[in-house]
Every structure is written in C-alpha cells, then in structure tokens.
Design goal:
FAD/NAD(P)-binding domain; binds flavin-adenine dinucleotide; 10 helices; seven-stranded mixed sheet; 372 residues; 22% helix; globular; alpha/beta
C-alpha cells in the first residue's frame, strides 16, 4: 500500500530509464527513504513499443574504461553486457531495467497510477490509485510516450501516430510519412524494407542537417545508413515541404503540401510528429518556456513548485535537449544530490556517477562541437 502516513524523503513517479536511474542515484544516499511508483510495470513504455522498433543509440560495454554504455542507467550496468545486443528492442530494454531493479533492490510499486500531486508547503501530497502518500520531494519521470500532441495539420485524425502498432503494420503501395526526424526515418525505412513506396514530408528536411554534432538535431549514423539503403531501392522520396492537410478520397488518402502539390497514399498517412512533455497530473506545477516545454531551474526543479523535479527526455536548458538516455542520465545524480543535501544527508557516494562520466552539474560544458 502507498497509503502509509509516513512521509517519504523522495517519491519517483515512473519506472522507465529516467525514474529507475534517478531512484538508483537516490538509493546511494544513506538513510534516504524512497518510493517509486508506476501505473504499469517496470519499463512499461518499452513493453508498449511497436514490434520492429529498436534503440538507435548503440550499447557497448566500455564501462571499465570510463566509457559507460550509452544506454545504461547505473554506472555499474550495461545493457550490451546483460542482453548481448547492441540495439535493444523495447522488450529487451525492459528486461535490462527489471534486472537492474532486482539487483539494486529498487522499491518499485507497479500498477499504481498517480492522479494528483498537491504542494503542501513542506512537501507534497500525492494521490494514487492505491491511496495517498506524502513526500518531501517528488521526481516526475512519467515519460513522453503517451503524450502525442496533434500536429498542426488539418485532418490529422486521418493519420496514425508513429508510436502506434497500426503505423508499423505492413502497408502496400504508396505510404506517406509526415515528419522526417528519427521516428519518421525509422518508420519510413521499415516500410521501404517491406516493399512499400514511401514519401516522407518535412519542411525542415532533417535528413539534410549538415551543421552541428548534436544527435538531437541530426540523424544518428544508423539512421543514415538505413536511409542510404532505403534510397538505393528507389522506393523512398524525401520532400522538404510542409504537410498542410489530409483528406480521404475513396480508397486514397491525399496529403496537400504547402507548394500546392498533392501526394496520394494507399493507406492512412503516418504522423511521425513527435511527443509532448508528458507531465500528466503535474502539468500545472511547471511554468512553460516560450516553446511550450517545462521551465526548469538549474537543478531541473520546477520554478513554481520547489521540491518537484523533472527527469527524462523533456528536460531542456536553453538550446540543450536531453532527449536520449545518455543525455538525461547526466542529471540523475545531480537531482539526487540536490534532494539529499536539502535534507541534510551525506551524498558523497554520488561521486561514483561523476567517475563513470554520468554526472553533469555544470551545464555550460554541454554542446561542444566535434572538430571532425
Ligand atoms: C520511439 C522512441 C524511440 C526512442 N529511441 C531512443 C534511443 O534509441 N535511445 C535513447 O537514448 N532514447 C530513445 N528514446 C528517448 C527516450 O530514451 C525514451 O523516450 C525513454 O522511454 C524515456 O524514458 P523515461 O523514463 O523518461 O520514460 P518512459 O520510459 O516512458 O517511462 C515513464 C513511465 O512512467 C509511467 N507513468 C506515466 N504517467 C504515470 C502516472 N500518472 N502514474 C504512474 N506512472 C506513470 C509510465 O507507465 C512509464 O513506465 C526514444 C523514444 C521514443 C518515443
């Protein structure tokens, strides 16, 4: 039960990589009373990934030489080591997370939906489907996967979002994908590989992004390789234009782009238009940046509800996006230390994260460009 009246030092909501990773850092702090809840199971989002989807960031066990596996959530773990694969599928990564939870005895309560979070002045009252709990600090790690804002395209309800199983089912003939960053290229290549004729439309032409080294703004090498292979089939067209509307015409779907061209498809268009911050019941406890993402202080804490932290891919600082595991994990130990020190606890054990290259507490060092 969550309804014990004892106050937790920290409650983590979400048992994906962000929640489990932050919980592991919090667990390293002596005497910190911690709870983790998830409305599903550990790694639920990865269990829900459509068949065919894999990681695009590779895993490799470089841990012993200070190059911690890019997809690891704890310095002494490696998905490549435990799974024996370099690009895990969703269920494989969920298995890795479960093994980490078991090994480090992270206190996770599954099937527990958080429905409300109320600041009380000296902490938070958290309502869940199993009762209420008090916590001095709350870390929101609810992920982005279930937050699929409608793209500004008239008739978007005629499209399948790329995160749905329907979008990954075999399609014949002409297929249209709206959105050409990672998820768009991923699903476009998937359908080309199965024989479809695919057109990708995106006004930003992300496949051309030449400037900058940050993988949040340019396609990963694996995606580029797949794109080249898809191109070589002659069945892939990339169009640098904005899709303005979708209409149905008998057996066809017609996507109009802003230069007046109409592109026809034999199945529902696929909207690879991204995800929102996924703040659920804490949405009103974060101020918003002009671009709509949550406003955070330098410690990833809400600027209007102190004690409420964000962990995961929705973290933004200036122009920096923390949308991959290897990026947002840099903040696990920092957030844990801010929470621990506010409660007068010894946080020395968190230096292990720094030694493993898994702690960035000075954000000015991020964003360096590669020379070649
Ligand atoms: C299709 C896709 C591919 C990606 N590929 C990569 C990749 O290759 N490499 C990479 O580094 N990153 C990748 N990412 C980005 C990122 O790593 C993932 O989004 C990752 O799942 C984020 O981890 P998370 O812990 O924040 O969220 P999640 O894994 O989504 O975990 C959030 C958890 O919170 C729970 N939850 C949500 N709301 C509540 C609530 N109200 N109460 C209780 N529990 C709740 C959910 O059940 C879920 O288990 C990808 C993302 C997507 C969508």
């Amino acid at each position: 039960m969550v309804s014990s009246r004892k106050t937790l030092d920290a409650l983590v909501v979400g048992a994906g990589p962000a929640g489990i990773g932050t919980a592991l850092a919090l667990s390293a702090i002596d005497d910190l009373v911690l709870g983790v809840v998830d409305r599903g199971e550990v790694g639920q989002t990865f269990l829900d990934w459509p068949d065919g989807q894999t990681f695009l960031t590779p895993s490799f066990t470089g841990n012993g030489f200070g190059a911690t596996d890019l997809n690891a959530v704890h310095p002494r773990t490696s998905p490549a080591f435990s799974l024996g694969v370099d690009y895990p599928t969703g269920p494989q990564f969920a298995k890795y997370l479960r093994s980490v939870v078991k090994h480090f005895r992270v206190p996770v309560l599954s099937d527990t939906d958080v429905t409300a979070v109320e600041p009380t002045g000296d902490g938070f009252e958290v309502e869940t489907s199993r009762g209420s709990v008090r916590a001095q600090a709350v870390v929101w790690a609810g992920g982005e996967f279930s937050d699929r804002p409608d793209a500004r395209v008239a008739g978007i309800s005629l499209a399948d979002h790329s995160a749905t199983a329907e979008a990954w089912q075999d399609r014949h003939g002409r297929v249209i994908v709206i959105g050409g960053y990672e998820s768009g290229i991923d699903i476009a290549c998937h359908h080309v590989e199965r024989g479809a004729l695919v057109t990708v439309v995106d006004r930003e032409s992300p496949w051309d992004a030449g400037a900058g080294s940050d993988p949040s703004f340019r396609l990963a090498p694996r995606s580029r390789m797949r794109l080249n292979a898809a191109h070589a089939t002659g069945r892939l067209t990339l169009t640098g234009a904005h899709a303005s509307s979708i209409k149905r015409d008998d057996a066809e779907w017609i996507v109009s782009v802003d230069d007046g061209t109409k592109i026809r498809a034999d199945s529902r268009p696929i909207a690879a238009t991204g995800f929102g911050p996924g703040l659920g019941p804490v949405a009103s406890l974060f101020a918003r940046r002009p671009d709509g993402w949550p406003e955070l202080d330098q410690d990833d804490q809400s600027t209007i509800a102190p004690g409420l932290f964000l962990s995961g891919p929705a973290i933004r600082h200036g122009g920096l996006k923390f949308c991959f595991v290897y990026k947002f994990r840099q903040r696990f130990a920092h957030v844990a230390r801010v929470i621990g020190e506010a409660q007068g606890k010894d946080c020395g054990a968190l230096e292990e994260w720094r030694t493993a290259g898994m702690l960035t507490d000075d954000l000015s060092c991020c964003g360096v460009e590669c020379a070649c």
